[in-house]
Amino acid sequence: MTAALAEDIGPGDATARALLPDEMPGRARIEARQELVVCGLEVAREVFARRGVQIDVRGSDGARAAPGEVLAYVHGPAVEILAGERTALNFLQRLSGVATHTSRHVECVRGTRARVVDTRKTTPGWRALEKYAVRCGGGDNHRMGLYDGILIKDNHIAALGSVGEAVKRARERAPFGLRVQVEVESVDAARDAIAAGAHALLVDNQPPAVIRQVVELAGGRVEVEASGGVTLANLAAIAACGVDRISIGALTHSAPAVDLALEWEGISSS
Fold first, then answer.
1. For the residues of the chain, what is the DSSP string, one character each?
2. Which of 31, 61, 130, 183 is an active site residue?
3. Active site residue 259
4. Is 168 a catalytic residue?
5. Active site residue 169
6. What is the rounded CA–CA span in Å between residue 148 and residue 131?
7. CB 101 within 8 A of CB 255
8. Which positions ≥6 away from 29 have C-beta within 8 Å?
9. Could you say which of 50, 121, 127, 169 is catalytic?
10. Closest alpha carbon to 178 in 146, 149, 199
């Protein structure tokens, strides 16, 4: 937040300082301009707090908001409200966008066993916030980083020569408690991974027919996750294959910002 405010304000808000006296109080409201899932209100509170502005939250993260609904009121020095406005809205619009986008995907798998999960395809420096937004939208988090889960991908297998050798090494050397997941692109690769002791499979960029075969092969012995090329258009068909999880990078890397606004309410007496 410090860096975000600094890049916008720099040495000072030239416009507000030229127009408004430092002692002038102000009040404004933050409102939704579209249907959305709210996320980032506490981040906005912290942004404004760093400018000496108070925020009275009316909504809550994870809640749905209708167009025109007031999410919060802010009050304090007018120049500081305006100085923090864009940074606070940038956080709110981005995080609510991820939450809203996630909720649309979650709705597509309702009634199936599949859970929608995110990936590491996040904005650098924003991972914890964006993964929190995914949870607000009803999704689940995959590993936070390279340190809290083992996912053997195609390049790992290519370096070692076989799925079996990769799983064997991972099982022998992994820190206690970390499960071993293997990316597979065929039923044969899935069979090899299960035989080697993998805890979970990630079926990458395969059509529903292949995904369904891997689910049948796994037979509930290991968790099956589908990933790659997942869209709102094909999500329901993938979920119908019986997978446990569907990981979708688009939850974070392609979520559009929602439409929010800060509307001035005139000079406050407080």
1. -HHHHHHHHTT--HHHHHHS-TT-EEEEEEEESS-EE---HHHHHHHHHTTT-EEEE-S-TT-EE-TT-EEEEEEEEHHHHHHHHHHHHHHHHHHHHHHHHHHHHHHHTTTSS-EEE--S---TT-HHHHHHHHHHTT-B---SSTTS-EEE-HHHHHHHS-HHHHHHHHHHHSPTT--EEEEESSHHHHHHHHHHT-SEEEEES--HHHHHHHHHHHTTSSEEEEESS--TTTHHHHHTTT-SEEE-THHHHTPPPP-EEEEE------
2. 183
3. no
4. no
5. no
6. 15
7. yes
8. 70, 72, 73, 74, 262, 263, 265
9. 121
10. 149
Instruction: Record the tokens describing residue 136, joined without a space.
Output: 């607000």
- 183 belongs to the catalytic site: yes
The yes-or-no verdict on residue 269 having pLDDT over 50 is no
Domains along the chain with CATH numbers: 2-105+256-264 (3.90.1170.20), 111-253 (3.20.20.70)
Nearest CA to 203 out of 221, 219, 220, 181 is that of: 181
Active site residue 86: yes
Report the first-to-last Cα separation within the chain, whole angstroms: 26
- pLDDT, tens digit, for every residue of 27-53? 999 999 999 999 999 999 999 999 999
Pairwise CA distance, residues 97 & 158, whole Å: 37
pLDDT level of residue 4 (50, 70, 90 thresholds): very high
pLDDT digits (tens, 9 = 90+) for 219-249: 999 999 999 999 999 999 999 999 999 999 9
Tokens 């979708």 appear where?
Answer: 248
Q: What is the pLDDT of residue 268?
A: 44
| C-alpha torsion 174→178→179→184, nearest 10 | -60
Determine which one of 69, 140, 165, 204 is catalytic: 204
Backbone conformation region of residue 189, classed left if phi is above 0, alpha if psi is from -120 to 50, else beta: alpha
